[in-house]
Inverse folding.
C-alpha cells in the first residue's frame, strides 16, 4: 500500500512572495521620498504596470503605511476626478527604519536630566558632525552652483537612507530639500534639537542660510528645507560697446 506523499513546497512560491514584498518596499520608499505622488507617476518611475501599482498601493493603504493626501492642482485630474496623491504615514515611516527609538529617547531623557539642555545640544551637534564631514567632499565635487550642491546633498542623503529629493521651490530663487524618511523621527518629536542641528549642518555644507519649513517629527509628511539659490550676477558690457 503506497503512502500519500505531501505536496512539495515550491521554492518559486517563496521567491515570488519575496519579490512582491521587495517591490512593495520600493513603492513605499518612492511614496516617502516623492510624495504626494499619484499612482501613474509611481508606475512610470518604477516601470510597473497599473495593475501592479493598484495591488501594492491597496496593500499599503490597508496596512496604513500610506494615505491619500488631500491636495489640489499638483497632478492634472482626469475628466473632473480628483487625483489620489499618496504620502507615507507614521507607520510607513516606521516600516522603513529600525525601531530603536525607545532606548534612544530614554538615553536623551537621561542626558537632559543629568547634563541639562546644553548636553542635549552638544549631542545633537556631535551626531551631525560625522554626517557633515562625510558629505563635505561630495558637495565640494558638485562645484559652486547652489542648486547642483543641493542635488548632490539629496543624492548623498538618499544613499544614507533618508529618501531625499531636491525640488524647485516657489518662484525661481529657491530649492527645497525634501527628506521622506528620518531614522530619528520619533526621538526628534521630543527632542527637536536633532532637527535643528541637522538644519545648521545643511547651512554650513551649502554655504547659505536655510530654513526648515516642516519636519516629519513635527507632523509633516516630509522634512522640507527651503534653500535660497542666488542667481548669477549679470554680465555688464564694457564701456563704449553696445550691450
Amino acid at each position: 500500500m503506497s503512502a500519500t506523499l505531501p505536496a512539495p513546497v515550491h521554492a518559486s512560491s517563496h521567491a515570488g512572495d519575496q519579490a512582491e514584498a521587495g517591490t512593495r518596499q520600493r513603492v513605499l520608499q518612492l511614496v516617502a521620498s516623492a510624495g504626494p505622488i499619484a499612482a501613474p507617476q509611481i508606475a512610470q518611475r518604477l516601470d510597473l504596470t497599473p495593475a501592479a501599482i493598484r495591488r501594492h498601493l491597496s496593500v499599503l493603504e490597508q496596512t496604513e503605511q500610506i494615505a491619500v493626501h488631500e491636495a489640489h492642482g499638483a497632478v492634472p485630474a482626469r475628466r473632473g476626478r480628483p487625483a489620489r496623491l499618496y504620502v507615507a504615514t507614521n507607520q510607513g515611516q516606521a516600516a522603513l527604519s529600525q525601531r530603536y527609538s525607545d532606548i534612544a529617547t530614554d538615553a536623551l531623557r537621561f542626558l537632559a536630566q543629568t547634563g541639562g539642555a546644553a548636553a542635549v545640544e552638544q549631542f545633537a551637534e556631535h551626531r551631525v558632525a560625522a554626517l557633515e564631514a562625510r558629505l563635505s567632499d561630495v558637495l565640494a565635487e558638485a562645484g559652486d552652483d547652489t542648486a547642483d550642491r543641493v542635488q548632490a546633498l539629496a543624492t548623498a542623503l538618499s544613499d544614507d537612507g533618508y529618501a531625499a529629493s531636491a525640488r524647485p521651490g516657489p518662484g525661481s530663487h529657491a530649492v527645497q530639500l525634501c527628506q521622506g524618511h528620518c531614522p530619528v523621527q520619533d526621538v526628534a518629536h521630543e527632542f527637536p534639537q536633532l532637527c535643528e542641528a541637522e538644519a545648521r549642518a545643511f547651512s554650513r555644507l551649502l554655504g547659505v542660510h536655510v530654513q526648515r519649513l516642516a519636519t516629519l517629527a513635527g507632523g509633516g509628511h516630509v522634512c522640507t528645507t527651503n534653500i535660497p539659490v542666488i542667481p548669477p550676477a549679470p554680465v555688464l558690457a564694457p564701456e563704449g560697446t553696445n550691450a
